[in-house]
Amino acid sequence: MSVKGYKNICAWLLAALLLVSGNAAAYSGMVVDALTCNPIPGAFVTLGDSVVRTARDGHFQISGQGTVLGLRAYGYRRREVPVGDLKEDETLSLAPFKPKALYLSSYGAANTRLRESALDIIGKTDLNAVVIDVKSDRGMIAYKTDVPLATEIGAQKMITIKHIHRLMDDLHQEGIYTIARIVVFKDNVLALARPDLAVRTAGGAIWRDREGLAWTDPFSKQVWDYNIDVAVAAAKDGFDEIQFDYVRFPDAKGLMFSEPNTRQNRVAAITGFLADARKRLIPYNVFLSADIFGYVIWNLNDTGIGQNLEEMAQQVDYISPMLYPSGFQYGIPGYPNPVLHPHQIVYLSLRKAEERTGLPPVRFRPWLQAFRDYAFGGQPFGGKEIATQIDAAQTFGSDGWMLWNPRNVYTTAGLPSKSGMVTTIREGHLSNPGGIGTGICSRNTPEKMTHLAR
Protein backbone atom coordinates (compact mmCIF):
# COMPACT_ATOMS: atom_id res chain seq x y z
CA MET A 1 0.00 0.00 0.00
CA SER A 2 1.27 3.47 -0.89
CA VAL A 3 1.87 6.15 1.72
CA LYS A 4 -0.93 8.19 0.12
CA GLY A 5 -3.32 5.26 0.35
CA TYR A 6 -2.40 4.69 4.00
CA LYS A 7 -3.05 8.36 4.81
CA ASN A 8 -6.44 8.18 3.08
CA ILE A 9 -7.44 5.18 5.19
CA CYS A 10 -6.33 6.93 8.38
CA ALA A 11 -8.32 10.02 7.46
CA TRP A 12 -11.39 7.88 6.75
CA LEU A 13 -11.03 6.09 10.08
CA LEU A 14 -10.69 9.41 11.93
CA ALA A 15 -13.83 10.74 10.26
CA ALA A 16 -15.69 7.54 11.14
CA LEU A 17 -14.62 7.84 14.77
CA LEU A 18 -15.88 11.42 14.89
CA LEU A 19 -19.24 10.32 13.51
CA VAL A 20 -19.52 7.45 15.99
CA SER A 21 -18.67 9.80 18.87
CA GLY A 22 -22.17 11.27 18.61
CA ASN A 23 -22.55 15.00 19.10
CA ALA A 24 -18.84 15.88 19.08
CA ALA A 25 -18.41 19.36 17.68
CA ALA A 26 -15.85 22.15 17.59
CA TYR A 27 -16.33 25.77 18.60
CA SER A 28 -14.11 28.83 18.63
CA GLY A 29 -14.50 32.33 19.91
CA MET A 30 -13.23 35.04 22.22
CA VAL A 31 -13.97 35.79 25.88
CA VAL A 32 -14.01 39.44 26.95
CA ASP A 33 -14.82 41.61 29.96
CA ALA A 34 -18.47 42.70 29.79
CA LEU A 35 -17.66 46.22 31.02
CA THR A 36 -14.45 47.06 29.18
CA CYS A 37 -14.68 44.63 26.24
CA ASN A 38 -11.01 43.77 26.87
CA PRO A 39 -10.00 40.13 26.27
CA ILE A 40 -9.79 37.83 29.29
CA PRO A 41 -6.68 35.60 29.13
CA GLY A 42 -6.79 32.28 30.98
CA ALA A 43 -10.58 32.04 31.15
CA PHE A 44 -11.97 28.50 31.40
CA VAL A 45 -14.16 27.25 28.55
CA THR A 46 -15.91 23.91 29.07
CA LEU A 47 -17.94 21.62 26.87
CA GLY A 48 -19.00 18.39 28.52
CA ASP A 49 -15.84 16.77 29.90
CA SER A 50 -13.57 19.00 27.81
CA VAL A 51 -11.94 22.16 29.15
CA VAL A 52 -9.56 24.67 27.58
CA ARG A 53 -8.25 28.08 28.63
CA THR A 54 -8.28 31.21 26.54
CA ALA A 55 -5.08 32.58 25.04
CA ARG A 56 -3.61 35.96 25.91
CA ASP A 57 -5.88 37.58 23.35
CA GLY A 58 -8.97 35.88 24.84
CA HIS A 59 -9.43 33.42 21.98
CA PHE A 60 -10.26 29.74 22.40
CA GLN A 61 -10.95 26.59 20.42
CA ILE A 62 -12.73 23.63 21.97
CA SER A 63 -14.24 20.38 20.77
CA GLY A 64 -16.39 17.88 22.61
CA GLN A 65 -19.90 16.74 23.33
CA GLY A 66 -22.51 18.84 25.03
CA THR A 67 -25.34 21.28 24.54
CA VAL A 68 -23.97 24.10 26.69
CA LEU A 69 -20.69 26.00 26.54
CA GLY A 70 -19.50 26.92 30.03
CA LEU A 71 -17.42 30.04 30.69
CA ARG A 72 -15.74 31.28 33.85
CA ALA A 73 -12.68 33.28 34.90
CA TYR A 74 -11.12 34.43 38.15
CA GLY A 75 -12.91 37.56 39.34
CA TYR A 76 -15.94 37.09 37.08
CA ARG A 77 -19.38 35.54 37.15
CA ARG A 78 -19.62 32.16 35.53
CA ARG A 79 -21.84 31.82 32.50
CA GLU A 80 -23.41 29.16 30.31
CA VAL A 81 -24.35 29.59 26.66
CA PRO A 82 -26.43 27.05 24.67
CA VAL A 83 -24.32 25.94 21.72
CA GLY A 84 -27.30 26.49 19.45
CA ASP A 85 -26.97 30.23 20.14
CA LEU A 86 -23.34 30.38 19.05
CA LYS A 87 -22.06 31.81 15.80
CA GLU A 88 -18.67 31.11 14.29
CA ASP A 89 -15.86 32.85 16.24
CA GLU A 90 -18.37 34.31 18.69
CA THR A 91 -17.31 37.03 21.14
CA LEU A 92 -18.64 36.15 24.60
CA SER A 93 -18.54 38.40 27.64
CA LEU A 94 -18.22 37.74 31.37
CA ALA A 95 -19.36 40.13 34.09
CA PRO A 96 -16.76 41.19 36.70
CA PHE A 97 -17.77 40.00 40.15
CA LYS A 98 -16.29 39.67 43.63
CA PRO A 99 -18.32 37.64 46.16
CA LYS A 100 -18.93 39.30 49.53
CA ALA A 101 -20.64 36.64 51.55
CA LEU A 102 -22.37 35.69 54.77
CA TYR A 103 -22.21 32.15 56.11
CA LEU A 104 -25.46 30.29 56.73
CA SER A 105 -25.59 26.85 58.29
CA SER A 106 -28.08 24.37 56.85
CA TYR A 107 -30.39 25.37 59.69
CA GLY A 108 -29.83 29.07 59.06
CA ALA A 109 -30.60 28.69 55.34
CA ALA A 110 -33.82 26.82 56.15
CA ASN A 111 -34.96 28.95 59.09
CA THR A 112 -37.19 31.74 57.81
CA ARG A 113 -36.11 34.27 60.46
CA LEU A 114 -32.36 33.76 60.01
CA ARG A 115 -32.54 33.50 56.23
CA GLU A 116 -34.74 36.57 55.78
CA SER A 117 -32.54 38.55 58.18
CA ALA A 118 -29.48 37.65 56.10
CA LEU A 119 -31.24 38.57 52.85
CA ASP A 120 -32.35 41.86 54.33
CA ILE A 121 -28.75 42.70 55.23
CA ILE A 122 -27.62 41.70 51.74
CA GLY A 123 -30.25 44.01 50.29
CA LYS A 124 -29.03 46.97 52.35
CA THR A 125 -25.27 46.50 51.96
CA ASP A 126 -22.61 45.58 49.42
CA LEU A 127 -23.02 41.89 50.26
CA ASN A 128 -23.90 39.75 47.26
CA ALA A 129 -23.25 36.12 48.17
CA VAL A 130 -24.03 33.36 50.69
CA VAL A 131 -22.09 30.31 51.84
CA ILE A 132 -24.52 27.51 52.70
CA ASP A 133 -23.73 24.25 54.49
CA VAL A 134 -24.47 21.36 52.15
CA LYS A 135 -22.54 18.83 54.25
CA SER A 136 -22.03 20.01 57.81
CA ASP A 137 -19.34 19.59 60.46
CA ARG A 138 -21.20 16.53 61.72
CA GLY A 139 -21.51 14.91 58.30
CA MET A 140 -25.20 15.58 57.79
CA ILE A 141 -26.39 16.60 54.32
CA ALA A 142 -28.88 19.46 54.32
CA TYR A 143 -31.20 18.32 51.56
CA LYS A 144 -32.21 15.23 49.62
CA THR A 145 -29.57 14.14 47.11
CA ASP A 146 -29.19 11.19 44.77
CA VAL A 147 -25.93 10.05 46.42
CA PRO A 148 -26.59 6.40 47.42
CA LEU A 149 -24.02 6.26 50.22
CA ALA A 150 -25.54 9.32 51.87
CA THR A 151 -28.84 7.47 52.24
CA GLU A 152 -27.14 4.22 53.26
CA ILE A 153 -25.24 5.76 56.19
CA GLY A 154 -28.07 7.98 57.40
CA ALA A 155 -26.55 11.33 56.38
CA GLN A 156 -29.97 12.52 55.22
CA LYS A 157 -32.08 11.58 58.22
CA MET A 158 -32.51 15.26 59.11
CA ILE A 159 -33.44 17.23 56.02
CA THR A 160 -33.39 20.93 56.85
CA ILE A 161 -33.64 22.41 53.34
CA LYS A 162 -36.79 20.95 51.85
CA HIS A 163 -36.70 22.55 48.41
CA ILE A 164 -33.13 23.19 47.26
CA HIS A 165 -34.05 24.14 43.69
CA ARG A 166 -36.57 26.69 44.90
CA LEU A 167 -33.95 28.16 47.24
CA MET A 168 -31.35 28.37 44.46
CA ASP A 169 -33.86 29.98 42.11
CA ASP A 170 -34.88 32.55 44.73
CA LEU A 171 -31.28 33.48 45.51
CA HIS A 172 -30.24 33.71 41.87
CA GLN A 173 -33.25 35.84 41.06
CA GLU A 174 -31.88 38.34 43.57
CA GLY A 175 -28.45 38.20 41.96
CA ILE A 176 -26.96 36.35 44.94
CA TYR A 177 -23.92 34.15 44.28
CA THR A 178 -24.19 30.77 45.99
CA ILE A 179 -21.33 28.80 47.55
CA ALA A 180 -21.81 25.20 48.73
CA ARG A 181 -19.73 24.48 51.84
CA ILE A 182 -18.86 20.79 52.07
CA VAL A 183 -17.03 19.58 55.18
CA VAL A 184 -14.85 16.75 53.92
CA PHE A 185 -12.81 14.54 56.26
CA LYS A 186 -14.48 15.52 59.53
CA ASP A 187 -17.47 13.21 59.11
CA ASN A 188 -18.95 11.62 62.20
CA VAL A 189 -21.79 9.98 60.27
CA LEU A 190 -19.63 8.20 57.71
CA ALA A 191 -16.92 7.25 60.21
CA LEU A 192 -19.39 5.56 62.57
CA ALA A 193 -21.42 3.90 59.82
CA ARG A 194 -18.28 2.66 58.09
CA PRO A 195 -15.62 2.04 60.79
CA ASP A 196 -13.28 0.74 58.09
CA LEU A 197 -13.04 4.32 56.83
CA ALA A 198 -12.47 5.96 60.22
CA VAL A 199 -9.32 7.50 61.69
CA ARG A 200 -8.17 5.40 64.66
CA THR A 201 -6.08 5.72 67.78
CA ALA A 202 -2.86 3.79 68.23
CA GLY A 203 -4.90 1.29 70.26
CA GLY A 204 -7.31 0.69 67.37
CA ALA A 205 -10.35 2.56 68.67
CA ILE A 206 -12.18 5.11 66.53
CA TRP A 207 -10.60 8.48 67.31
CA ARG A 208 -12.77 11.45 68.27
CA ASP A 209 -11.85 15.12 68.31
CA ARG A 210 -12.47 17.72 71.05
CA GLU A 211 -16.15 17.87 70.07
CA GLY A 212 -16.49 14.12 70.36
CA LEU A 213 -16.77 13.69 66.59
CA ALA A 214 -15.10 11.00 64.49
CA TRP A 215 -13.14 11.67 61.30
CA THR A 216 -12.66 9.70 58.10
CA ASP A 217 -9.33 8.65 56.62
CA PRO A 218 -8.04 11.26 54.13
CA PHE A 219 -6.13 8.51 52.31
CA SER A 220 -9.30 6.58 51.48
CA LYS A 221 -10.43 6.79 47.85
CA GLN A 222 -13.92 5.77 48.98
CA VAL A 223 -14.05 8.83 51.21
CA TRP A 224 -12.82 10.99 48.34
CA ASP A 225 -15.46 9.64 45.99
CA TYR A 226 -18.28 10.14 48.49
CA ASN A 227 -17.43 13.79 49.09
CA ILE A 228 -16.96 14.47 45.39
CA ASP A 229 -20.33 12.81 44.72
CA VAL A 230 -21.87 15.30 47.17
CA ALA A 231 -20.05 18.15 45.39
CA VAL A 232 -21.29 17.02 41.98
CA ALA A 233 -24.85 16.86 43.34
CA ALA A 234 -24.51 20.43 44.65
CA ALA A 235 -23.20 21.61 41.28
CA LYS A 236 -26.15 19.99 39.53
CA ASP A 237 -28.49 21.70 41.97
CA GLY A 238 -27.27 25.11 40.87
CA PHE A 239 -24.55 26.26 43.27
CA ASP A 240 -22.06 28.61 41.66
CA GLU A 241 -19.08 27.40 43.68
CA ILE A 242 -18.02 24.31 45.62
CA GLN A 243 -16.06 25.10 48.77
CA PHE A 244 -14.31 22.28 50.63
CA ASP A 245 -13.74 22.77 54.35
CA TYR A 246 -11.88 20.47 56.74
CA VAL A 247 -9.96 19.29 53.70
CA ARG A 248 -7.13 18.26 55.97
CA PHE A 249 -5.85 15.70 58.45
CA PRO A 250 -6.77 15.97 62.15
CA ASP A 251 -4.37 18.15 64.16
CA ALA A 252 -3.67 15.42 66.73
CA LYS A 253 -0.68 13.16 67.32
CA GLY A 254 -0.38 9.38 67.30
CA LEU A 255 -3.31 8.62 64.98
CA MET A 256 -3.54 5.66 62.63
CA PHE A 257 -4.42 5.83 58.95
CA SER A 258 -4.44 3.41 56.02
CA GLU A 259 -1.06 4.78 54.86
CA PRO A 260 2.03 6.01 56.73
CA ASN A 261 1.38 9.44 58.24
CA THR A 262 4.28 11.30 56.66
CA ARG A 263 4.36 14.88 55.46
CA GLN A 264 4.80 13.78 51.84
CA ASN A 265 1.89 11.35 52.05
CA ARG A 266 -0.39 13.88 53.75
CA VAL A 267 0.22 16.57 51.16
CA ALA A 268 -0.25 14.07 48.34
CA ALA A 269 -3.58 12.96 49.82
CA ILE A 270 -5.02 16.46 50.16
CA THR A 271 -3.86 17.70 46.76
CA GLY A 272 -4.87 14.39 45.18
CA PHE A 273 -8.41 14.73 46.52
CA LEU A 274 -8.67 18.30 45.20
CA ALA A 275 -7.29 17.25 41.80
CA ASP A 276 -9.88 14.46 41.54
CA ALA A 277 -12.66 16.85 42.55
CA ARG A 278 -11.55 19.44 40.02
CA LYS A 279 -11.59 16.86 37.22
CA ARG A 280 -15.02 15.49 38.06
CA LEU A 281 -16.54 18.96 38.35
CA ILE A 282 -15.42 20.06 34.87
CA PRO A 283 -18.79 19.36 33.19
CA TYR A 284 -20.62 21.65 35.63
CA ASN A 285 -18.62 24.87 35.11
CA VAL A 286 -18.48 25.67 38.84
CA PHE A 287 -15.72 27.44 40.71
CA LEU A 288 -13.76 25.37 43.24
CA SER A 289 -12.31 26.68 46.51
CA ALA A 290 -10.72 25.27 49.64
CA ASP A 291 -10.58 26.58 53.20
CA ILE A 292 -7.21 26.52 54.95
CA PHE A 293 -5.92 27.34 58.42
CA GLY A 294 -4.55 30.87 58.70
CA TYR A 295 -1.19 29.57 59.91
CA VAL A 296 -0.80 27.47 56.74
CA ILE A 297 0.14 30.73 55.03
CA TRP A 298 2.96 31.34 57.50
CA ASN A 299 4.20 27.77 57.99
CA LEU A 300 6.55 26.41 55.35
CA ASN A 301 5.64 22.79 56.18
CA ASP A 302 2.16 21.26 55.94
CA THR A 303 1.28 22.34 59.54
CA GLY A 304 0.99 18.60 60.26
CA ILE A 305 -2.38 18.45 58.51
CA GLY A 306 -1.49 18.01 54.83
CA GLN A 307 -2.24 21.61 53.84
CA ASN A 308 0.59 23.00 51.74
CA LEU A 309 -0.26 26.42 50.33
CA GLU A 310 1.59 26.15 47.04
CA GLU A 311 0.33 22.64 46.26
CA MET A 312 -3.31 23.34 47.12
CA ALA A 313 -3.36 26.58 45.15
CA GLN A 314 -2.59 24.65 41.98
CA GLN A 315 -5.76 22.59 42.30
CA VAL A 316 -8.43 25.17 43.11
CA ASP A 317 -9.70 28.46 41.74
CA TYR A 318 -9.71 30.22 45.11
CA ILE A 319 -7.84 29.69 48.37
CA SER A 320 -9.91 30.77 51.38
CA PRO A 321 -7.71 31.22 54.46
CA MET A 322 -9.50 31.51 57.79
CA LEU A 323 -7.96 34.78 58.94
CA TYR A 324 -9.84 35.13 62.22
CA PRO A 325 -7.58 37.09 64.58
CA SER A 326 -8.77 34.86 67.44
CA GLY A 327 -7.37 31.85 65.59
CA PHE A 328 -3.81 33.20 65.58
CA GLN A 329 -3.05 32.14 69.12
CA TYR A 330 0.68 32.81 68.72
CA GLY A 331 0.21 36.01 66.71
CA ILE A 332 2.28 36.76 63.62
CA PRO A 333 5.69 38.48 63.35
CA GLY A 334 5.41 41.89 64.97
CA TYR A 335 1.87 41.36 66.28
CA PRO A 336 1.71 39.05 69.32
CA ASN A 337 -1.88 40.05 70.18
CA PRO A 338 -3.80 39.60 66.93
CA VAL A 339 -7.23 40.76 68.15
CA LEU A 340 -5.77 44.24 68.68
CA HIS A 341 -4.57 44.32 65.06
CA PRO A 342 -7.19 42.69 62.83
CA HIS A 343 -6.23 44.78 59.80
CA GLN A 344 -2.61 43.69 59.96
CA ILE A 345 -3.52 40.05 60.51
CA VAL A 346 -5.68 39.95 57.39
CA TYR A 347 -3.57 42.15 55.13
CA LEU A 348 -0.15 40.76 56.00
CA SER A 349 -1.38 37.16 55.80
CA LEU A 350 -2.78 37.73 52.32
CA ARG A 351 0.41 39.45 51.23
CA LYS A 352 2.41 36.50 52.56
CA ALA A 353 0.22 34.10 50.57
CA GLU A 354 0.72 36.17 47.43
CA GLU A 355 4.48 36.26 48.00
CA ARG A 356 4.74 32.51 48.52
CA THR A 357 2.60 31.40 45.60
CA GLY A 358 3.23 34.14 43.06
CA LEU A 359 -0.51 34.18 42.40
CA PRO A 360 -2.49 37.41 41.89
CA PRO A 361 -4.72 38.69 44.73
CA VAL A 362 -7.86 37.60 42.87
CA ARG A 363 -7.00 33.97 43.66
CA PHE A 364 -7.62 34.51 47.38
CA ARG A 365 -10.87 35.10 49.25
CA PRO A 366 -10.49 35.19 53.05
CA TRP A 367 -12.84 34.25 55.85
CA LEU A 368 -13.21 37.17 58.28
CA GLN A 369 -14.21 37.11 61.94
CA ALA A 370 -17.79 38.19 62.76
CA PHE A 371 -18.01 36.54 66.18
CA ARG A 372 -16.80 37.31 69.70
CA ASP A 373 -13.15 36.65 70.45
CA TYR A 374 -12.52 33.38 72.31
CA ALA A 375 -8.75 33.44 72.86
CA PHE A 376 -7.61 36.89 74.00
CA GLY A 377 -10.08 38.11 76.61
CA GLY A 378 -13.40 37.59 74.86
CA GLN A 379 -13.90 41.04 73.38
CA PRO A 380 -16.80 41.54 70.95
CA PHE A 381 -16.02 41.76 67.24
CA GLY A 382 -18.42 44.46 66.13
CA GLY A 383 -18.68 46.95 63.31
CA LYS A 384 -15.26 48.50 63.83
CA GLU A 385 -13.41 45.18 63.77
CA ILE A 386 -15.43 43.87 60.83
CA ALA A 387 -14.88 47.07 58.83
CA THR A 388 -11.12 47.02 59.35
CA GLN A 389 -10.88 43.39 58.24
CA ILE A 390 -12.91 44.15 55.12
CA ASP A 391 -10.70 47.14 54.39
CA ALA A 392 -7.61 44.93 54.68
CA ALA A 393 -9.01 42.38 52.20
CA GLN A 394 -10.11 45.07 49.76
CA THR A 395 -6.82 46.95 50.02
CA PHE A 396 -5.05 43.71 49.16
CA GLY A 397 -7.41 43.17 46.22
CA SER A 398 -8.78 39.73 47.11
CA ASP A 399 -11.68 38.15 45.27
CA GLY A 400 -14.13 39.44 47.85
CA TRP A 401 -14.41 38.11 51.41
CA MET A 402 -16.68 36.02 53.63
CA LEU A 403 -18.01 36.64 57.14
CA TRP A 404 -18.20 33.76 59.60
CA ASN A 405 -20.61 33.71 62.51
CA PRO A 406 -21.50 30.15 63.60
CA ARG A 407 -24.86 31.33 65.00
CA ASN A 408 -25.68 33.11 61.71
CA VAL A 409 -26.40 36.36 63.56
CA TYR A 410 -25.31 39.41 61.56
CA THR A 411 -25.99 43.14 61.48
CA THR A 412 -25.17 45.89 58.98
CA ALA A 413 -22.53 47.32 61.36
CA GLY A 414 -19.19 47.68 59.60
CA LEU A 415 -20.50 46.56 56.22
CA PRO A 416 -20.06 48.74 53.11
CA SER A 417 -23.24 50.23 51.72
CA LYS A 418 -24.31 49.47 48.18
CA SER A 419 -21.65 50.72 45.79
CA GLY A 420 -22.48 53.09 42.98
CA MET A 421 -21.55 50.56 40.33
CA VAL A 422 -23.24 47.22 40.87
CA THR A 423 -22.63 44.31 38.57
CA THR A 424 -25.16 41.63 39.38
CA ILE A 425 -27.29 39.15 37.57
CA ARG A 426 -31.03 39.48 38.00
CA GLU A 427 -33.38 37.45 35.83
CA GLY A 428 -30.52 36.78 33.44
CA HIS A 429 -29.62 40.45 32.84
CA LEU A 430 -26.44 42.40 33.40
CA SER A 431 -27.28 45.26 35.75
CA ASN A 432 -25.06 48.33 35.60
CA PRO A 433 -26.96 51.17 37.26
CA GLY A 434 -23.78 53.15 37.80
CA GLY A 435 -23.47 53.72 34.09
CA ILE A 436 -19.83 52.60 33.88
CA GLY A 437 -19.41 50.68 30.63
CA THR A 438 -22.18 49.36 28.44
CA GLY A 439 -21.48 45.65 28.79
CA ILE A 440 -22.28 45.34 25.08
CA CYS A 441 -19.24 43.82 23.40
CA SER A 442 -21.00 41.63 20.84
CA ARG A 443 -24.30 40.09 19.95
CA ASN A 444 -23.83 37.41 22.59
CA THR A 445 -23.55 39.45 25.80
CA PRO A 446 -25.03 38.33 29.13
CA GLU A 447 -28.28 40.14 28.26
CA LYS A 448 -31.21 37.73 27.94
CA MET A 449 -29.05 34.67 28.62
CA THR A 450 -31.29 32.47 30.73
CA HIS A 451 -28.44 30.38 32.12
CA LEU A 452 -26.28 33.32 33.18
CA ALA A 453 -27.01 33.18 36.91
CA ARG A 454 -26.82 29.40 37.12
TrEMBL record:
<dbReference type="InterPro" id="IPR025275">
    <property type="entry name" value="DUF4015"/>
</dbReference>
<dbReference type="InterPro" id="IPR017853">
    <property type="entry name" value="GH"/>
</dbReference>
<feature type="domain" description="DUF4015">
    <location>
        <begin position="101"/>
        <end position="410"/>
    </location>
</feature>
<dbReference type="Pfam" id="PF13200">
    <property type="entry name" value="DUF4015"/>
</dbReference>
<protein>
    <recommendedName>
        <fullName>DUF4015 domain-containing protein</fullName>
    </recommendedName>
</protein>
